[in-house]
Amino acid sequence: GIIQGDRRPDPRAIIQVASAATLVRRESIPPAKMIVVDEAHHFAGAEGWKGLVERYAGKHFMLLTATPDRGDGRPMSNVAEALVATVQPSKLIEDGVLTPCEILAPSERVLKGIACEPVEAYVRWGGGRRCVMFCQTKQHAREVTSKLMARGINAGCVTDETAWTVRQSIYRRVATGDIRVLVNVFVATEGLDIPALEVCILARTAGNASLYLQMVG
To answer: Under DSSP, is residue 175 helix (H, G, I), strand (E, B) or coil?
Structure first.
């Protein structure tokens, strides 16, 4: 069953899927013996998640994340009893689940800013392949998108202001190759699934390991 907006609920379904924010807001929530939480690194310390824990007090929680690390340095131990590392990226690459990659980086540490102008980086090393690019701000993303278009490179820009239907249209056009570069700010960081993408450009700072791993992952 799906618990969302105006969708018709199915209380008979043994598995219910919902966002934490929806469950916290609703007066009536489905009974459950196990609660599975995706992207669980957001769980620790988040006020909305605390409400979810309280509403399912005493039940079994299974927390899933590719990056069990918080940007603010806080531990996960206040919400989890044990960390179970099921597999390493190297094993997933060996098994063909993840794609082996070639990494291009500056030869020396860049103390301020980014190592290369993003559009020039794509032109020089992107080879016209389909690319996802992470920018620092919405203004930066719009400027990069305009520069790409001016160079004859079809690009689509996605931010938190982009309507869901527009996002889906852009993603489909990236998958088909009509759009070569998907430019975004904090939208394609988690959960993006476009297998046709071949290049990832980090045109921003990361600040912490978790955000970096989510972007390149």
So the answer is: helix
Q: How far is CA 38 from CA 18, 63, 128, in A?
A: 11, 6, 34
A 10 A CB-CB count for 54 gives 9
List the structure tokens of 33.
């013996």
The answer to whether 135 and 144 have CB atoms below 8 angstroms apart is yes
**Structure tokens given for 71:** 């940007």
Instruction: Give ∠ CA 53-85-2 in degrees, rounded to 5.
Output: 40
Per-residue pLDDT at 47: 64
From residue 214, how far is each of 70, 113, 191 by CA, in Å? 12, 20, 9
How far is it, in rounded angstroms, from Cα 121 to Cα 141?
15
pLDDT tens-place string over residues 21-37? 888 888 888 899 999 98
**What is the rounded distance in angstroms from the CA atom of residue 5 to the CA atom of residue 200?**
34
Find, among 84, 71, 56, the residue nearest to 190 by Cα: 71
Can you tell me which residue has the tokens 């992470």? 134
Strand partners, 182: 132, 156
pTM of the predicted structure, to 2 decimals: 0.71
